[in-house]
Fold this protein.
Amino acid sequence: MTATGDPVVHPTAIIEDGVSIGPGTKVWDNVHIRTGARIGRSCILGEKTYIAYDVKIGHRVKINAFVYICFGVEIEDGVMISAGTIFTNDQFPRATSPDLVELRTSEPDEDTRHTLVCEGATVGARAVIGSDLEIGRFAMVGMGSVVTRSIPDFHLAVGSPAQSVGWVCRCGEPTLRFPPLETPTVDTVDCAKCGRIYKRKGGRVEERLPPTKST
């Protein structure tokens, strides 16, 4: 489905110069988007969300209320970022120089790190996302989790620090029941809800076939 029409921007939203917003995207009240940010088409940006300068957001992305997205974050198509999520981009932050004389700016420097949220992924409410990592395709992060390292495709990760506890289908159901990771064989399973078929080798999950059931 192709989005048509201009984006809808609430009158209280702050959109700085140089921001690109795609057709069909809705920006709700008190959202602040910094200069250079690029938002795709058919997205939703929930109230009081902050998007830093030069952030890249793909198409059909759903960002709920009170989300903080800092510089260095890229979000691909079809991602959901739930309410209260916080992204970070500095692993060892300080407010000042070591001698406490000079206040450090918020400009990116050699310590700034990047984060990629791959297509189809979901980040649960109030999660905290570290930097210098990747959240894989259609992965799912549980609410309240603290992500400190990359999450592979289709993995379900929860906790603080977040750890993989299972696998999730494209349709969102955690119904992929593989044997333990120690099993050396290549396993194939289908989603009990939609019938999509997946292969697992070690900790890697790959799609094999389209769904066999109606979705």
About this structure: The chain has a mean pLDDT of 91.
